[in-house]
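Morning, I've got a small favour to ask if you have a moment. I've dropped the whole record in just underneath, so have a look.
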Amino acid sequence: MSDVLDTIAATVAARRDANPQTSYVASLNEKGIDKILQKVGEEAVEVILAAKNADSSVSDSAEVINEVADLVFHILVMLDRLGISHNDVMAALAARQGISGLEEKASRNAD
């Protein structure tokens, strides 16, 4: 999975300053961080709605999978805009392995 994220992140970085008329990533960046954050929020809501619909009926999980993929993509655009590597996020997740979620959350709140 890391290879896929690496490839997408590299593509996002390469397209950041491309022609906004031909690149979705460039068009988001041209509109600024607020537009990127709006897209992340919209995609998060779409994930929630897709999951809710999947939970309340016997439906295919394809919609949930596609909405999560959209969310991850927009998060990669956001991270790129902020100059944060997705590898830093992966490292934070790796550091949490073997730690209770409750303990990890408590340690962040103690700071």
Remarks:
- The longest helix spans residues 33-56.
- Residues 2-109 form a domain with the Helix Hairpins fold (CATH 1.10.287.1080).
